[in-house]
Amino acid sequence: MEQPVQTETWKAQSLEELVRILHQIFAEDKVSVEEVQALMESYESNPEEWLQYAKFDQYRYTRNLVDNGNGKFNLMILCWGEGHGSSIHDHTDSHCFMKILQGNLKETLFEWPEKKGNGEMTKKSERVLRENQCAYINDSIGLHRVENISHTESAVSLHLYSPPFNTCNTFDQRTGHKHKVTMTFYSQFGERTVC
Amino acid sequence: LPAGLSQWFPALEVLDVSGTGLTEMGTELLSLPCLHTLLAKNNRLGGPGSLPKGLGQAPLARSLRVLNLSGNRFSEVPPALLQLRGLRSLSLGGNRLHGIPPDIQELQSLEFLYLGGNFITAIPPELAKLPSLRYLVLCDNKIQSIPPQLAQLHSLRSLSLHNNLLTYLPREILNLVHLDELSLRGNPLVVRFVRDLTYNPPSLQELAGRTIKTRNIPYTPSDLPESLVRYLSLASNCPNPKCGGVYFDSCVRQIKFVDFCGKYRLPLMHYLCSPECSSPFSSASQSSTSQSESDSEDEASVAAHRMQKVLLG
Known about the structure:
The structure holds 2 protein chains of 2 kinds.
Chain A: H1 15-27, H2 33-42, H3 47-50, E1 62-67, E2 74-80, E3 88-89, E4 95-102, E5 105-110, E6 123-129, E7 134-137, E8 143-147, E9 155-162, E10 167-171, E11 178-182, E12 187-188, E13 191-192
Parallel strand pairs in A: 1-12
Antiparallel strand pairs in A: 1-2, 2-9, 3-10, 4-7, 4-9, 5-6, 5-8, 10-11, 12-13
Chain B: H1 5-8, E1 14-16, E2 37-39, H2 60-63, E3 66-68, E4 89-91, E5 112-114, E6 135-137, E7 158-160, E8 169-170, E9 181-183, E10 194-195, H3 204-214, H4 226-233, E11 236-237, E12 246-247, E13 252-260, E14 264-272, H5 298-305, E15 309-311
Parallel strand pairs in B: 1-2, 2-3, 3-4, 4-5, 5-6, 6-7, 7-9, 8-14, 9-15
Antiparallel strand pairs in B: 10-13, 11-12, 13-14
Protein name (chain B): LRC58 protein
Region (Disordered) (chain B): 281-303
Keywords (chain B): Leucine-rich repeat, Repeat
């Protein structure tokens, strides 16, 4: 993605409109990170519009595909029960946007481990993202762990990945060792995926 | 709770009074025969009278399946709660609990137990007497060790232990064959080979007990004082396959590392009856001093492969 001469200021009035505008943006050759982030943040979360995608699992967070962006991006909704969290992971050279639709998520940023590293990974920063906020990350920024630290509330987030990817690396915080994993969808377009 | 609740809504099945500032839930609950789900999170419950007296005799004791009391002020699990014999799902996350009562085993139907975000320091072995428990959350507490008896939770699918004070796990954790998820991050797990060198030699009583057990010397309750009969029943088997011995109080604690599918190395604690015993994890070596960090861990690796998602990192 590179900076175009002028960035538009979008306002998505509904989830459907958000998807429509995203298709429009990604149809171009050049897409601006700031533009996409502002668009995602402009959408005011309305549970009625996304409840059909928000399927929770008792044991861990779920990934629910909403739209596959004509191959240019994947838009999905993640559902986090109380205490659910992800491992530290990278983003396979893709751009990752994460918007909170409900509840709060804590994002902890980590430095990439040294090539020969065999020690504890270095924490860069952490923050708690509130409803409707949108965060952005890519591999050049670093790695992160995302978790719902609430013991009373569940959380729902909207993620956009471009280009789409289905494998990434997870990292052991104590040693920096990485391990490739394949990600799957708990549901697609509102239908539970049976494995 | 408003008086007359059970008169207006006798068929009530789900009641959600979360975030209402409740300080107690009274006798209105006792007359709701169909209630299966009670959500009362983010209130001010925790003092005496939070739950009504006579709960064990009410229809609720058999009908209630789901109880969510997270985000309240409980400093102990209210004894009345343990009378809810039909309970399948219990959440006391984000309270002020300092421990778990052994009588938790009364909740025999429990499948889901959420105790994250409290001040729990220890886990009673009685927690393992819950045969249907599938999901156990103990994250964000102050737990220093896991009792090996927890390996008896045969139905356990997911165990959340992140952000505690664990330095090692009991070796028996490998017996949890259905465990898909295990979260351990944020614990000060030892990363280097540790050997507990403070081995206290066994007492005469222990030596006598060991001899009786290993040589199968017959005895009946009338032969010995009751205290010794009880003592003999507490013998533990040494895991060293070449030893076949037993120990009572005197044992060597040893931490060995187990590889999980080549991904993570977990420190597991096990007990041996003497420093001369080698662990089941090591290959031929007999002498304790020649054991190295990278012992072959055949038996452990096989068990470890069953745990698909150990979320350490």
